[in-house]
Amino acid sequence: MNKLVTGAVAGAAGIALLLGGAGTFALWNASTEVNAASVASGTLSLTQASAGSWTDVTNGRSAPLTAAQLAAYKIVPGSKLQFTQPITIAASGNDLRADLTYDAASVTGSLTSYVKNALTVSTAAGNTTLPSGVTAGGTAGSYVVAPVTAGSTSAVLTFVVELPSAVSDAASQGGTLDLSKLTFTLKQRPIA
Question: How does 133-156 read in b/e, with b if 16+ C-beta sit within 10 Å?
């Protein structure tokens, strides 16, 4: 009986080796290569077209400020300064929509709770015409960017810093507002 079991085990092992171990057991299969073309991704970028500039626009003024003048400028309740930044927006892609705004966290300092900031987008400083592919967003200071045929569009971002005349808190005196890392953002919206 023992020889019979040993022989059966050896025979089964031999059959298993013949069927699967050497790769000789195969079923039919087939494949074909097709030319399904290729798919490309779009683009979304926001770049500075040239250096930005500051202007004192308090009470309707329009006085450009040099870097030295800005460094020496001390705002008081009622002061209003305007930063103008020419940019290039590149947006391409099916179903692409992106929100253009500024990052409030990029404005720091002890005066952040006192000042009012506002962002506008236009084709040129001093006008209100929106650039091609840009529409007003759902809230003040937000805009929606869509692709344009040319692939990119020029725009001017105008960022206003105002210390309202109603501010009477003594804690606002001697404060600072750091705009050295002011960041404008362009973030894709989920496809609707």
Answer: bbeeeeeebebebebbeeebbebb
